Amino acid sequence: MEAAGTPHSSQCLALLGGTGHTGRLVLRNLLTSGNNQMELHVYVRSKEKLIALFPDILSDARVTIFKGNIQDDGLMQRCLSGVDTIICTLGENENIPGIRVMQDFARSALEALKSFKDNSSHWKPRRLILLSSATWNKRFADSRPAILHWMIRNTFAQSYEDLVKAQKLLKASPSLLSILLVQHNALVDEAASGCEVSTEFAYMAVSYEDLADGFVKLASDPMYTNIDAVGVSSRSAENGLRYFPFVFTKVLRGLMCQFIPGYCRAEYVIYQWLQTLKEKSKKS
Q1: Rounded CA gap, 124 and 111, in Å?
Q2: CA dist 174 to 85, 104, 114, 127, 281, Å?
Q3: So what's the pLDDT on residue 34?
C-alpha cells in the first residue's frame, strides 16, 4: 500500500500554474516525492521563471515543460496528452476587473479533452483537481455570518465571477472529466501546521504550504476518487480568531477596490512610487 502523499508510480500528472504561489509548492512536493517513475507535465507562462525557481528541473527526466498562452489549443493538447490527472492551481487572488484566466483554461482544456475522446475507442474521463473557494460551497459558507459572507463575495467579485463561470463550463462536460474542487478560505503565507482535508468544514485559513500538501494528497489517495469537493485548511486555523485581523484587513481593502472608483489604481500608483524610492535608497 502506498504512503499517502506519494503519487502512484504509473501516474501521469499535468500541473497548470507551476510558478504561482500555490503551484510552485505543489511542484516542489511532487519533485521531492521520491517517485522516479512519475511523469509530470508542467504548464507555465514563463519558462525562465520556472527555471529560476527550480534550477535543476531541465535535467529531471520526469518533467516536460509546456510554455505559452493558456488559450493556445495546440499547446494545451500537447500538455494534456497521455495525462490521467490534471492539477490546476491557476487563478487570481486580487479583484482584477475582466479577469478570465479560469474561463480560458476551461475552454482550452475541454477542447483538448474532446479531441482525445473523439479519437479514442476506450475513453475514460480525466480527473481534474481544481483550485476553488469555500465561498462557493454552501455547507462551508453557511457557517459564516451572513454579512461576512456578503463582504467576502464582494471583496473578490471579479475573480469569483471568473471561477464560477469556469466551474460551470467544466461541470457541464462529465463525459470528458470528473472534478474535485479544492475549496479553501483565506490564504496565508506562513509555515505549515498540518493539512486538514474535509467534506464537512473549511477553517478560516490555510497556508500555501498546507494547501500544496493537500493537492498532492488528493492526487495520490484513492479515497478521494469519487468525491467532488473538499475543504482544505491548516490545523492552526481551528482557532479562527488568530486570523481575524488579516482577514478583516483583506476584506476591507477588497471592498474599497470594489466600491470606490479609482481606489485600486491609486493604490497601485502609490505602491510603484514607494518601490521606486526603495530602489533609489539602495543605490545611494
Answers
A1: 16
A2: 15, 18, 11, 10, 56
A3: 77
Q: Which domain holds residue 102?
A: 12-243
Q: Is residue 142 part of a domain?
A: yes
Within 8 A by CB and 6+ apart from 280, the residues are: none
At 91, phi and psi to the nearest 5?
145, 180
Other beta carbons within 10 Å of 174: 10
* Rounded Cα–Cα distance for residues 256 and 94 (Å): 12
- Tell me whether residue 114 is in a domain: yes
Q: pLDDT at residue 235 above 90?
A: yes
Distance CA 202, CA 196 (A): 8
> Is 252 part of a structural domain of the chain?
no
Q: What is the CATH number of the domain that holds 171?
A: 3.40.50.720
φ, ψ for residue 159, nearest 5 deg? -70, -35
Cβ contacts of residue 260 below 8 Å, gap of 6+? Answer: none
| Residue 170 within a domain | yes
Burial bucket for residue 210 (CB in 10 Å: 0-12, 13-18, 19+): buried
The residue behind cell 483565506 is 186
**What confidence category does residue 42 fall into, taking pLDDT thresholds of 50, 70 and 90?**
very high
- pLDDT tens track for 17-37: 999 999 999 999 999 987 778
Q: Provide the β-strand partners of residue 86.
A: 14, 128
* Full DSSP string of 1-50: -PPTTS--TT-EEEEE-TTSHHHHHHHHHHHTS--SS-EEEEEES-HHHH
> 186 pairs with which residues across the strands?
205
- pLDDT for 2 equals 35
State yes or no: pLDDT of 4 exceeds 60: no
Number of domains in the chain: 1
